[in-house]
Design brief:
Shape: globular
Number of strands: 4
Helix content: 25-40%
Structural class: mainly alpha
Largest sheet: 2 strands, antiparallel
Radius of gyration: 24 Å
Strand order of the largest sheet: 1-2
Length: about 250
């Protein structure tokens, strides 16, 4: 006669289940509020991109150096203050670095207001600065940031620490764009205007995160080519309006 199994008997515990780490002892992967996301060392692909950025930045900087110096002299002659100014920006992994740029605004114009976004028709921009911004010549000194390894030619646009601190609290997932190096140009920059409000930040974040997830050599070349078209007013040759309006 077969012996019946007592269902009330305690279940057997396998050695494998006993070795499992309780969930409460798992390491915390999410950063605390206000902290940048943890990033690991550069991958092989990222190191190859950094090397290509260095070579391309050096090749562009050599012929562009006389133009850069001419712009600096023009700024010094037409308004008070330095020709090149420095500004703190947030880079990969939340690391703060010093960004170089040709001055396009009146000297010390944020002394009373603090860091604020530039808006259309901003009175702080000098007449010469409007031309430099239109032609994107004010970005030329950032080639030195690329040579120093702080920036890339292509990537999300770096923002100031004071503004980033506020955006971390108001825009969900904003820090995810800091998983890669910031760039002089980028997928968001060739499609949308500069940040001017929270809505514009959220719109550009969609493009930035799309770049972070799908970046490739082909995409990098497309962004560089589209940047050249945009500088010559030929944005219509590559631009496709999104299904949902973002501007």
């Amino acid at each position: 006669m077969s012996q019946r199994v007592n269902r009330s008997s305690p279940a057997r515990v396998s050695p494998r289940s006993a070795l499992r780490t309780p969930a409460s002892h798992a390491p915390r992967l999410r950063p605390r509020p206000g902290e940048p996301p943890p990033v690991g060392p550069l991958s092989a692909g990222e190191r190859a991109k950094a090397a290509a950025d260095f070579v391309l930045a050096a090749l562009v900087l050599v012929p562009a150096l006389p133009l850069l110096l001419a712009c600096v002299v023009l700024v010094r002659l037409t308004s008070r203050g330095p020709g090149i100014y420095t500004q703190a920006r947030v880079g990969r992994g939340g690391k703060v670095f010093t960004l170089y740029k040709i001055r396009t605004m009146y000297h010390d114009c944020e002394r009373l207001t603090g860091p604020t976004w530039c808006r259309p028709g901003d009175a702080r921009i000098t007449p010469v600065g409007r031309v430099l911004r239109k032609l994107h010549l004010d970005e030329l000194p950032q080639l030195f940031n690329v040579l120093k390894g702080e920036m890339s030619l292509v990537g999300p646009r770096p923002e100031r620490p004071e503004i980033v601190k506020k955006l971390r609290e108001q825009v969900v997932g904003y820090d995810r764009r800091h998983a890669v190096k910031p760039g002089i140009t980028g997928f968001a920059q060739i499609h949308l205007p500069p940040d001017s409000c929270l809505r514009s930040v959220r719109n550009k974040l969609v493009y930035d995160l799309f770049y972070v997830r799908h970046r490739s050599w082909r995409m990098e070349l497309f962004i560089l080519f589209a940047t050249g078209l945009k500088m010559f007013g030929l944005k219509r040759l590559y631009y496709r309006a999104p299904r949902v309006p973002t501007e």
